[in-house]
Specification:
Length: 513
């Protein structure tokens, strides 16, 4: 560390909350060299480097360069004024030069004919070049690395067994060793984090249909780009840091992608639009918050595009909701789900033995509950052509018998149960377990296979303490001057009460008349 003050400042910035990441300039420290290991168990010859004239000459070349240090070149001459510089700390260089060249040339020869030759060789060369360490910025390249590169390039160029194409690729990698750091704008990571958090704070994640995206964008901060490249020898994984310009472009792009994909039009078409009044309030509040954020002109250039985009989008969403709300109100007024369900019961009884679901129960055949559910699935799909009607939809560990999703009413969930079924006693808890905060009512279709009335016994099941029955909530309702009755009860399995509508279908109705 040649500038300890920078380290102290980095720690202070983090401790005080001024910065999330401590950054230290490469002018403030030196990276020491390290020894490399050969591949495939390669061993140096006996008496290395005095084993042959070739290695002896290389060692002498390294010694000559060391003796000239720091006056070997203009950048290194600046070391004469550096108080931290001690020449004897670099006495390792002559031996390092001849050793890394021997190891690297062995790797080239051992890997050149392998399928992954380029990755294996260049990873080893990168590992070897990094082992020369790094001088602080302004004091030149690592000591002697140019001799390593020049000599290895000469070996490769002169070798007759390496193809021309492979030579060119390896030589290009070596000769560009000092250009591996792209000439990009100097990036302050804390500045990137601030820019991202600024966008995150402005984006209207409080809107209910965008809320599920918040945890993802809270955890994934795009300050690194591309796929990390891991060196198979050093284990280092290198990434490029996103520049401020690239981050701003990304934020504009992701803002556009989100609002184009998830919006009120999408909710309507997906039959997911429920409480329009609540949505309108959310939009107004979000729009006002973005308008207030836009008044802050600090770094306006970076924020202008996505703030403008959000303001236009929120304005359009408000307009869409205002236009569609009267239509939805008319649609909802025209839908009476209880009346439609009773209409289905009337049609079933009218058709009597022409309906397979009635015959199945009377003759005790298989799929008794399922045939009733499937009949009503087809009935409601025909009654509500614009609805999504699904049967046996999975929810947690259970299945919803019948679910009707319609833009003009809240989601309707119907549970079909036979009186012969043992778990009929849990019917209230079963139907309530399917209801979220967006559904305040569920519907039970109880199939009576007996020739006697079951209403008294059924009421006892509903009012049982285990069903969290709300005392005094049971009601018997006669449908519009007919002999048809249905029943209503309330239950509290969570913080909110839920209403359950009960319809008893007597399959032996004709025998009772």
């Amino acid at each position: 560390m040649i500038n300890p003050e920078e380290f102290v400042k980095a720690f202070q910035d983090i401790s005080s909350g001024k910065a999330q990441i401590g950054q230290i300039s490469t002018k403030a420290f030196e990276i020491k060299h390290y020894d490399t290991q050969p591949v495939n168990g390669h061993e140096l010859p006996k008496d290395f480097p005095n084993c042959c004239a070739f290695h002896t000459e290389l060692f002498q070349m390294g010694t000559a360069r060391y003796e000239k240090l720091p006056n070997c070149c203009e950048p290194h001459k600046r070391l004469n004024q550096a108080k931290w510089f001690k020449k004897e700390n670099y006495a390792y260089f002559p031996m390092k030069l001849v050793t890394t060249l021997a190891y690297s040339w062995h790797c080239v020869k051992a890997s050149i004919d392998k399928p992954e030759w380029y990755k294996e060789i260049t990873d080893y060369l990168d590992y070897s070049m990094r082992s020369y360490g790094q001088l602080p910025d302004g004091f030149g390249p690592p000591v002697g690395i140019e001799l390593y590169v020049a000599n290895l390039a000469g070996y490769i160029e002169q070798d007759k067994h390496i193809s021309f194409d492979k030579k060119q690729k390896l030589l290009e990698f070596l000769t560009n060793f000092d250009k591996r750091k792209p000439d990009l704008e100097q990036t302050d990571i804390n500045l990137l984090l601030d820019k991202y958090h600024e966008w995150f704070k402005i984006f209207p994640f409080e809107i209910s249909f965008l809320r599920h995206l918040k945890p993802y964008f809270e955890k994934h901060i795009p300050i690194l780009k591309g796929k990390g490249d891991t060196n198979m020898y050093s284990g280092l994984t290198a990434f490029q840091v996103t520049t401020k310009k690239e981050l701003v472009q990304f934020l504009n792009s992701v803002t556009l992608t989100i609002i184009k994909t998830i919006n009120t039009r999408f909710l309507f078409e997906s039959k997911m639009m429920k409480d329009v009044d609540a949505l309108k309030i959310e939009m107004m509040l979000a729009n006002r918050r973005v308008e207030i954020q836009a008044l802050d002109r600090t770094d306006w250039k970076d924020r202008r595009e996505y703030i403008k985009m959000l303001k236009q989008w929120l304005k359009g969403e408000k307009k869409f909701l205002n236009e569609i709300w009267p239509i939805l109100q008319v649609m909802e007024k025209n839908i009476d789900f209880v009346k439609d369900l009773i209409d289905g019961i009337w049609r079933l009884q009218k058709n009597d033995i022409n309906e397979a679901c009635i015959v199945n129960v009377r003759e005790d055949k298989a799929e008794k509950e399922a045939t009733f559910r499937n009949w009503f699935k087809n009935f409601f799909q025909a009654r509500y052509p614009e609805a999504i009607v699904s049967a046996e939809e999975e929810k947690g560990k259970r299945y919803i018998d019948l679910k009707i999703t319609h833009p003009g009413m809240h989601e309707k969930i119907v549970e079909f149960k036979g009186w012969w079924n043992y778990d009929k006693k849990n019917i209230a808890s079963q139907i309530c377990s399917h209801l979220t905060d967006f559904e305040n009512a569920g519907y039970v279709f109880m199939i009576n296979h007996k020739q006697d009335e079951i209403i008294s016994s059924y009421k006892e099941l509903v009012e049982d303490a285990s069903m969290n029955y709300v005392e005094g909530s049971w009601k018997e309702i006669q449908f519009q001057g007919t002999d048809m009755f249905y029943y209503v009860s309330k239950h509290k399995f969570s913080a909110k009460e839920k209403t359950v509508y009960h319809f008893i279908f007597n399959v032996w109705f004709s025998h009772q008349q």
